[in-house]
Write a structure and sequence with these properties.
It contains nine helices and no strands. The protein folds into two domains: 90 residues, no CATH class; 93 residues. Helix 6 runs parallel beside helix 9. It starts with 17 loop residues before the first helix and ends with a helix.
């Protein structure tokens, strides 16, 4: 559960549970991924394990009553770390063109511009809104779908999905920034 005394303090020990382990397993999977890319079916297995851990950690946390601010924080960051590592590995090995990463991570690139502001708000005790939007979820799902043909070397299938992810990711990030500024205007 989120601490009622100060919800802005991240407590790493709150990850010592089943949902936390599901979240944290994406880090070793990110490390493993480039080493299995020469075997696409094994790379897909690693990728699906990461996606499954991402899909299960939140429901498990709610079911077990172990939701926490650090869990939500770690979930988002470890998902990004895994996907960026996987995409970078595919680009370096020329499985995908490197510029696809600009489209796949358009949401993160735009949101990255606001990180100093988020950190400032967080340090002031104001936790920014963190709930994903419907278009954000759709972007994440389409990114996951685009990864599969990319891993298998089917660029003709992956490319149109990549373009859609880029457009939706940009819309998602702009929507999140709009939500952030609307939240700032609300009286406290």
């Amino acid at each position: 559960m989120v601490s009622s005394t100060n919800p802005t303090i991240l407590r790493p020990l709150q990850l010592c549970n089943l949902s936390g382990m599901l979240t944290l397993m994406r880090l070793p999977l990110a490390i493993l991924f480039p080493f299995v890319l020469d075997r696409p079916h094994l790379a897909l297995l690693v990728y699906f394990a990461a996606v499954l851990s991402d899909a299960l950690d939140g429901p498990v946390a709610r079911w077990r009553g172990t939701t926490s601010q650090i869990g939500a924080f770690a979930d988002g960051w470890l998902d990004k770390i895994f996907h960026i590592q996987a995409a970078w590995s595919m680009a370096v090995l020329e499985i995908i063109p490197g510029w696809w990463m600009w489209l796949w991570f358009s949401r993160e690139l735009i949101q990255g511009l606001a990180v100093p502001w988020y950190v400032h708000r967080y340090m002031q005790g104001s936790v920014p809104p963190n709930a994903p939007s419907g278009i954000g979820r759709l972007t994440a799902i389409l990114l996951a779908i685009a990864f599969v043909p990319s891993i298998l070397g089917y660029r003709a299938v992956a490319f149109p999905l990549t373009v859609v992810v880029g457009v939706l990711g940009t819309c998602t990030a702009l929507g999140y920034l709009k939500r952030e500024f609307e939240d700032l205007r609300r009286p406290r």
